Amino acid sequence: MPLDTHRSNVVLIGMPGSGKSTVGVLLAKRLGLGFIDTDLLIQQKTGRTLQAIVDGDGYQALRQIEEQVLLTLDVQHQVISTGGSAVYSEPAMEHLKANAVVVFLDIPLDIVLERIGDYSARGISRRPDQSLNDLFHERYELYSRAADITIDCVGKDHDEVCDAVVAALARETR
User: Fold this and answer.
1) Could you list the residue range(s) of the whole structural domain that residue 103 is in?
2) Strand-pair category, 9-13 with 78-81
3) pLDDT of residue 119
4) What is the pLDDT of residue 115?
5) What is the DSSP annotation of 34-99?
6) How far apart are CA 71 and CA 76, in angstroms?
7) Considering the domain boundaries, does residue 3 fall inside one?
């Protein structure tokens, strides 16, 4: 299923644990597109894990590096899995939205907690005094605002989420 010519990419946004990387690979295979995980691009660029960046330089440093990586992405026909904090950068989101359909993989906080377990080692970009609950609610608003499509992932496995994204893209690009 071809996307329209001016929006040839699909960008996945959502909380850590929402399935962006896993669903992204499935979606890329299903749509015949390439796959990019921006967390991996950040690690390649810096030679460090996300957690090492947060531990060494703070969460703001991770967000700045993420913004730089996103702003330099110039790709076509890709599924792009973004880090959970990509939506904090308005310039980066505008850059991505210029040639992509943005899909929010929506999962509730209890599933985030269940899936990511001990989030202290996940390289999650949050203020040191910020609870995961507060972070979730802060980001939820940003994800909702940035998304062209929101997929409710509750009760769906990764294949079913992929199916839902494909169906929504078909409706979106008609």
Assistant:
1) 9-172
2) parallel
3) 58
4) 83
5) EEEEHHHHHHHHHTS-HHHHHHHH-HHHHHHHHHHHHHH---SSEEEEPPTTGGG-HHHHHHHHTT
6) 14
7) no
Question: Which distant-in-sequence residues (6+ apart) come within 8 Å of 124 by Cβ?
Answer: 16, 54, 84, 85, 132, 135
Residue 4 located in a structural domain: no
Q: Are 156 and 105 in contact (CB under 8 A)?
A: no
CATH of the domain at 54: 3.40.50.300
Query: If residue 23 lies in a helix (H) or strand (E), which one and from where to where?
Result: helix 20-31
Read off the pLDDT band of 21 (50, 70, 90).
Answer: very high
74 belongs to a structural domain: yes
The pLDDT tens digits for 112-144 are 888 887 555 556 777 778 888 898 999 999 999
24 is a domain residue:
yes
C-alpha closest to that of 156 among 42, 37, 23: 23
Q: Convert the pLDDT of each residue in 30-57 to its tens digit.
A: 999 999 999 999 999 999 999 899 889 9
Q: How many domains does the chain have?
A: 1
